[in-house]
Design goal:
Length: 604
């Protein structure tokens, strides 16, 4: 039976043997007769050959293995070391080839050279190439459970640091800048090759595995106040506000200026107090939410009606940019420019200092995330006989339950390297756990410490020695951009939705947190009926309406006759009932379906 050949998903022909066809394509690719960008895969169950040449495929380089022998010979290795040849030479001469996800299905790849068999087709250039770029910035991931690897990658992306050297010239929508970023004591080959120390994303912290009066339960962490005052985890948050003078059909356009009091939607004199004459705020001015940073007026949305004098007065509307709800800071810099369409554009960058506080999130390179629960004065923190006070207290239960033993190894190695004053290599798959403990444990013993990094600690509050020894060391921690000051949301009274009369939802709309079905069930379960009524009626969309006692229809109050009227039967015998406005809306929608709902009233 012939095999179908698909080129980028399109059937282009058939061949007698799909397996032989795929082998021939690979042979020609390694000889350089066809492009190295071509990938081919034969699927035996489907009896189909897939040839892929399209862009956007993820491809990985592997050393070619032929007849159980690697083509990357010692001679080639020597020439590469002397720089007589380069990586591209190896690709062109079929020593290294790139495989995509589909062709990898036809490959048997050995991780190391001693694992090659007669069936092996390829060899990993280095075991760490199994992992991606972000993961390789971390260390000793082989000692962390696989489930944590995606988290490690996510936390690395969320880390604050020196994201760009030209940050003062950039106007990113939002940016985070760590004040004192440090190079990790334990780093990897990828970290050094990419020169990531120029864009460091964290700080080396002295961490002790200890509880603290119940404050660091579960994921919570306790920080040392003195360390925070010295700059631990301190960062700057930049927010850029952008606006432009848009042009509209009919020759009208926006204009940057301080809106006059006659403008529609005028916010009041206090809101524009910090603007210059041109309608743009000045640098280095402190601002809070509600302040206008860019004053702008826009033409009316609709044509104005003529007045009694026959003159159409154009009433402009206020379209100013205000500081976001709940944010404050200092105007850092302002940039004026023009867009491609030759319209004026203004960008205002606002900076605000972020000092670690309860609720801010920190994470190590082993997905040991934690939220600050308490910041303790240094005098109340545990300390060693040498007077070493940890920067952070981490709950010891968070390590065995998450099986992140790489975190403990990093603590041990970090402590030993701090004593020797040097960096260490922790590249994934390059070390063996037992030998690491022996190697760095010996350094600790030479310095008078316990081999496994345990030390006697004294309670800062009572001065008494703890009964057990506490494991402590140095770990590289990221401060993540999940900070409580940017998420804080509070509402007493505020705007409501026009349709349902219920409070708005979300921080930007000055809304509250949604009180959903599950929250309702919790109150029902507790029997807190008055609280339920308060949340879901009094503080939400309470609507007093008139109900006809005769026919059960919704009535209204006639202020001319000064009495309630039923539009259905004309009766004046109505009762006022307090219901949710959303229920009144439901009744109206039922009526629109030609169904007449009636409400029966019982006597109290």
């Amino acid at each position: 039976m012939k095999s179908g050949i698909y080129l980028d998903g399109r059937l282009i022909g058939y061949t007698k043997s799909g397996e032989e066809f795929a082998k021939e394509v690979r042979r020609n690719r390694r000889l350089g007769l066809i492009s190295g960008e071509v990938n081919v895969a034969y699927f035996k169950k489907l009896n189909e050959v897939y040839v892929n040449t399209d862009r956007g495929r993820v491809r990985s380089p592997y050393i070619v293995v032929e007849n159980g022998v690697s083509t990357f010979t010692p001679e080639i290795k020597e020439r590469l070391a002397k720089k007589e040849i380069d990586f591209n030479y190896l690709v062109r001469h079929g020593v290294i080839e790139y495989l995509d996800a589909e062709e990898e299905e036809n490959a048997l790849i050995a991780v190391r050279e001693d694992a090659i068999t007669q069936k092996t087709t390829h060899l990993q250039i280095d075991p760490v190439s199994i992992l991606g770029l972000t993961m390789n910035l971390s260390v000793m991931n082989e000692y962390d459970t696989v489930g944590k690897h995606s988290l490690i990658s996510n936390f690395t992306k969320q880390a604050q640091g020196l994201y760009a050297i030209n940050f003062l010239k950039r106007y990113d929508p939002r940016a985070f800048l760590l004040y004192y970023p440090q190079r990790p004591i334990i780093n990897s080959v990828a970290y050094r090759a990419l020169q990531m120390e120029k864009h460091a994303t964290g700080q080396n912290m002295v961490v002790a595995l200890s509880t603290y009066y119940g404050y660091n339960m579960k994921d919570a962490i306790v920080l040392n106040r003195a360390a925070v005052d010295r700059g631990l985890g301190r960062s700057e948050f930049f927010r850029t506000y952008t606006d432009e003078e848009r042009r509209y059909p009919g020759g009208q356009q926006d204009k940057f200026m301080v809106p006059p009091p006659t403008t529609e939607g005028y916010l009041g004199e206090h809101a524009y107090a910090k603007l210059s004459e041109d309608g743009i705020i000045e640098p280095e001015l402190p601002i809070v939410d509600g302040d206008v940073v860019i004053g702008k007026i826009s033409p009316p949305r609709f044509l104005e009606e003529q007045t009694s004098f026959g003159v159409a007065v154009e009433k402009n509307r206020d379209n100013s940019i205000m500081v976001r709800v709940g944010e404050e800071g200092v105007v850092d810099s302002i940039m004026e420019s023009e867009t491609a369409g030759a319209t004026r554009i203004v960008k205002v960058r606002v900076r605000s200092e972020k000092i670690p506080e309860a609720g801010d999130k920190f994470a190590s390179r082993h997905a040991q995330k934690g939220v600050v629960a308490l910041i303790v004065p240094q005098a109340d923190m545990p300390f060693t006989k040498d007077g070493i006070v940890p920067d952070m207290l981490l709950n010891p239960h968070s390590l065995p339950s998450r099986t992140t033993f790489g975190h403990m190894l990093e603590m041990l190695m970090g402590k030993a390297c701090s004593l020797k004053g040097e960096y260490a290599d922790g590249t994934t798959f390059s070390t063996e756990g037992k030998s690491l403990v022996d190697q760095y444990g010996a350094i600790l013993e030479q310095s008078g410490f316990d081999k496994f990094g345990d030390e006697e600690f004294y309670d800062g509050r009572t001065g008494k020695k703890f009964n057990a020894k506490i494991f402590n060391g140095v770990v590289y921690y990221h401060k993540l951009w999940h900070m409580v000051s940017l998420k804080l949301q509070v509402r007493a009274r505020g705007p409501v939705q026009i349709l349902t009369h219920q409070p708005t939802e979300g921080k930007p709309r000055k809304g509250g947190l949604r009180f959903g079905e599950m929250e309702r069930d919790a109150l029902v379960g507790h029997g807190a009926s008055l609280l339920l009524k308060d949340r879901m009626l009094e503080q939400s969309d309470k609507a007093p309406i008139w109900i006809c006692k005769n026919c059960g229809a919704v009535g209204y109050y006639d202020y001319i006759k000064n009495k309630p009227v039923c539009p259905s039967c004309g009766s004046n015998d109505l009762e006022m009932v307090e219901i949710s406005y959303a229920f009144k809306l439901l009744l109206d929608e039922i009526k629109s379906l030609h169904i007449n709902p009636k409400i029966k009233l019982k006597s109290e």
